[in-house]
Amino acid sequence: MATPDDWTLLAQRIQAISQNGLTYATSPYDVERYSELSRIAAQMMAGPEPPRVALAEELFAAQQEYATPKVDVRAAVFRDGRLLMVRERSDGCWTLPGGWTEVGQSARESVEREVWEESGFTVKAEKLLAIWDIHKHPHPPLPFHAYKLAFRCSLLSGEPTTSTETSEVGFFGEDEIPPLSLTRTVPEQIQFMFRSLREPDAPTYFD
Questions:
Q1: pTM score, whole prediction
Q2: Which H helix or E strand runs over 205?
Q3: Which of 59, 75, 142, 173 is 20 to 30 A (C-alpha) from 67?
Q4: Distances from the Cα of 87 to the Cαs of 25, 51, 97, in angstroms?
């Protein structure tokens, strides 16, 4: 029997096929059929509630050109052996600072910017620690496929400062991690960050 995660993966795949088809379609017939696939994917993703289906259709419609995984960046910033984390306003839970990369910025520039915007700290990205495929880690279902790039960053300056996205900023020891915002960060990734602190010369991990 298919699980909710299975249906999410199927919906993501159908949406990718639709998006790629609409990128290259030339006949009205093909455009109509690929658009219908996108509507089906939205219904699979959102469930039976019409407002949620409409929102999913709007989200999918905003995606153009060939479908590829999105890129999320996360930072491991330590002070006195404690890990920097921020509390998300959206769900009240905690995560590694980071977010989607910006067009026109490198991954390094994006992660340094995200840390500053979300926590008030200026950092320098020093090493790519991991490349995680969200499908291979226990994140809740998301609308799109994504890769997470985790960087070790050195703390340069700044003071804890909240933002429109974050309500608290703090440093936590390995045995005192608060409830996590699982769409962004899962426990095994926190454990990996502390392990990378103890093993600074370990090679970059990738799925």
A1: 0.72
A2: strand 205-206
A3: 75
A4: 43, 28, 9
Q: Mean pLDDT by 10-residue block, N- to C-terminus, for the chain (207 residues)?
A: 62 76 77 76 67 56 67 98 98 97 91 98 98 94 87 98 97 98 97 97 96
CATH architecture of 70-206: Alpha-Beta Complex (3.90)
By the 10 Å C-beta count (0-12 exposed, 13-18 middle, 19+ buried), 188 is classed as: exposed
- Is the CB of residue 83 less than 8 Å from the CB of residue 89? no
As given in the structure block, the two tokens for residue 53 are: 């289906």
- Which amino acid makes up residue 168? E
DSSP letter (8 states) at residue 92: S
Q: How far apart are CA 123 and CA 113, in angstroms?
A: 9
Domain ranges of the chain: 4-61, 70-206
